[in-house]
Fold this protein.
Amino acid sequence: MAEEVILRFDEVTFEYEHNKPILDEASFSVRKSAKITLMGQNGAGKSSMFALIMGELKPKSGRVSVTNGASIATARQVMAQEDLALTVTEYFAKAFEIAPANLAGKISKAMGAVNLEVPVDRRVNDLSGGQQARLFLAFALIQSPDILLLDEPTNNLDQAGIDHLIEFLVMYDKTVIVISHDADFLNCFTEGVIYLDIFTKKIETYVGDYFSVVEEISRRVEREQRKNAQLKKLIIDRKEKVNFFANKGGKMRKLAKKLKDETAELEEDMVDVRQEDKTIREFNIKAQDIAGEIVKITAVKVIHNHEPIIKKVDKIIRKKMHLLVIGPNGVGKSTFLRSLVSGKNEQAKILDKVRVGYYSQDFTNLDFNQTVFDSLSGALNEGTDTQAMRSVATGFLIHGDLMGRKVGELSEGQKGLLSFARLTLMQPGLLILDEPTNHINFRHLPVIAKAINGYEGAIIMVSHMSDFVKQIKFDDELNLGKVYNS
């Protein structure tokens, strides 16, 4: 007996306002209990696909159907601003129309499933990025969904958190659809891939683990390129013959017409070869010319057993110095960086007049209501004109069609590239980078690592991606996990 289909897209067409097409008569089905990866280029519309599945968006035509009213929950990748002030208990209560009597027990079970240990009266805004990532998943699980949607679930998780998530997903007996750029993570549990192509707006489905599917796609692209090369050669040959015989008259002119019709058929047979995301252009972040003690850190606040403690340290960061801040999820790394940027940390001060380039893991430093053009213009350093700004933006795949859109309309990957474009335009004296690989396509990471490594200003960085960190030379390390043991 065929396995039951739990989700089906039937010739679904969807577009945003301003005639921005996302899907063109897309059709696919997902069977019950499947573990599926949703792939596609940056900006292809993967998150929009999740919104269509959730019913938050409606197709222009076609139908999205869920079998027997199966329940759906999603673990999002960015916390909504209105939820940040809620306590953990209040946040979980939002998963229900009416909070159940045994909410506390359900919360305990959901948090246990994702290995999250925080007081339930703690405010969401006080949780680390990694703790919030676990909270997103627990929020979805407390609803006991038949279909679980995960959008970049490994962002902000340390390796222990990723390993726990993999173990959970392997054992989870319901349907899971995941968006992620973490290939190793995906390969551990994926059984198939749904591919959304930004250029054709079509859907392709593949069966197999993630690495096998990627190899299959690569082989298919090679076959398509070979076929197109052969067809192109034939088309050129036929067109030359058409031009030759068309001038002969009589029967030769009829032959020319026949060859012209055959050439048109050959051109129709040309395959739309998939175009993967282009890699961003190599770039340099010029440093502000500034000397002295750019950052002086005399103490840090860390979280130990859910309580803040202050520990003295002695760190001075000058030009060309790179400091890596490490420690487990929840110890206070991002909080430390935010307090430093805000200027409100008396124990960690930035030298006056230093331009600070801040990459925030949740993009809270971006104004989502600004246009992309205005966001880039706001980062311009003196002496840089609009033409140079557009050139920098193009290098980060931010083309003219995006300039008039609001920052909030961009995909998370596009917001990440916008952030790096802004850093390049700022020419800062200090870079503060909080999980700068979040949401970034893996193809871009070596280019970004090279630019960061070559930057001649001061750097303070937090990153859980060890392969990325290894590509950058660090002069010093601040281990918040060891600070409270010292």
Notes: DSSP finds 16 helices and 17 strands in the chain. Residues 5-71+145-214 form a domain with the Rossmann fold fold (CATH 3.40.50.300). The two ends are 62 Å apart (CA to CA). The mean pLDDT is 86.
